[in-house]
Please model this.
Amino acid sequence: GAGVSQSPRYKVAKRGQDVALRCDPISGHVSLFWYQQALGQGPEFLTYFQNEAQLDKSGLPSDRFFAERPEGSVSTLKIQRTQQEDSAVYLCASSRDRADEAFFGQGTRLTVV
Amino acid sequence: GNSVTQMEGPVTLSEEAFLTINCTYTATGYPSLFWYVQYPGEGLQLLLKATKADDKGSNKGFEATYRKETTSFHLEKGSVQVSDSAVYFCALFNYGGSQGNLIFGKGTKLSVKP
Model:
């Protein structure tokens, strides 16, 4: 596609609910990153995929967070048993290679009530 | 560890004023440095970058020079426009071993008044 697409744009979840956030990267981009951006803060790294392989998940804040990219294209970030502190904008970025320019989606704003 | 510190906002300027947004970093090795911009309602966009010491990145009238001696990458523009109103993020990328991702500052909101 023309750019990185994320859905939904907005998600309201009740505390304890599971959510799934989708990212469609730019076609042909090998690298895919997920970031979390709390209100008034810069994005913070969550996890990195090279094709379908999750090479770095050092930024995932707890075992409630899980990401996958089974066919090396679309990726899903899943958060189980959501908590209020999970409220943030979740950003997806893709690039041709890990150190190349990263192109960001518009993000999914998650609000946990 | 790696980190980025940038000046806190908000910054409010009149059109045609000079802009400086300070950014300093801490990193091992030789990171690449970036400025990203987020316009209202849009995603993060790369504004400019520099990959080694003394490199100057420039785009849309904005400039930043990679200063290794002061570990800085300050963003400047000689004459801002209302359309420059946005949030600006300084970031570094340090690639080594299994690690390699952007590390961002907290962002600086710029408002330009006509």
